[in-house]
Amino acid sequence: MSSIEACKFYLSRKDLANGAHVGLASSDRTVALVRRWQQTSESLRAARAETLTCFVVSPAKSGKFELSLVDEDRFNTLQESIEAHNEELERLEKAVRDLDAIDAPMFLEINDQVGIHGRSEHVERQQIANMTSAYLQRRANTGKTPDEILAADPEFQRLKGLCEKRIEQSKSKLAELKPKRDQMKAILESVGC
């Protein structure tokens, strides 16, 4: 993955955060992933540059120069560090690609949406119960059964229908969001974010 791809991914996370809560972007797991990618890239670059300090340039025959290894232990340690950084970078890049492939939003955003839609049914059912109670109290002295009172009131039926429609919409949205959130969570946890 190029730094341009990572920057685009990071900027898209920043843009999403600016639309809502800028402070949340700093704690979002997808932004943490990109920051970790940037830090690993910088550490890799620094380790590669530091390997040059293990060599000395000396003149060779015929006016050329050659590099001589001066500190082999340090050089080997740096090579191990470079390999570890490369492996980490590959894992992080794969996670970014996987998140991009599923068109993942910020983790906090999708997690909040799952929470909102998950609580929606309870809230709507409570609203229906409150409406039912209020309608029955207002028409208690009509001599009709509760079912007859509610069935005869078109306003109650309309409001109840709206609540049930919102419940169904929330359930379908939740069925769409939960697998995506779980997939994002698995990808982010696979790289420790």
Topology (elements, then pairings):
Blueprint: H1 3-19, H2 22-25, H3 29-51, E1 55-59, E2 65-69, H4 72-101, H5 107-138, H6 146-152, H7 154-190
Antiparallel strand pairs: 1-2
Helix pairs in contact: 1-3, 3-4, 5-7
Describe this structure in words.
This protein is mostly helical and 193 residues long. It has two domains: 3-101; 107-190. The protein has helices at residues 3-19, 22-25, 29-51, 72-101, 107-138, 146-152, 154-190; strands at 55-59, 65-69. The chain has a two-stranded antiparallel ribbon. α5 (107-138) packs antiparallel against α7. The longest helix has 37 residues, at 154-190. The chain is rod-shaped and about 115 Å long. The two termini are 19 Å apart. The model is unreliable at 17-22 (pLDDT under 50).
Could you tell me how far the N terminus lies from the C terminus, measured between alpha carbons in angstroms?
Answer: 19 Å
Q: What summary fits the major beta sheet?
A: 2 strands, antiparallel
How much is the average pLDDT? 83
- Count of DSSP E strands? 2
The stretches of 5 or more residues where confidence is low (pLDDT under 50) are 17-22
Structural class: mainly alpha
Summed up, the helix count is: 7
Strand content: 5-15%
Question: What Rg, in angstroms, do the CA atoms define?
Answer: 30 Å
Q: In which range does the helix fraction lie?
A: over 70%
Give the strand line-up of the largest sheet.
1-2
The SSE string, one letter per element, is HHHEEHHHH
The tally of domains stands at 2
The shape, in one word, is rod-shaped
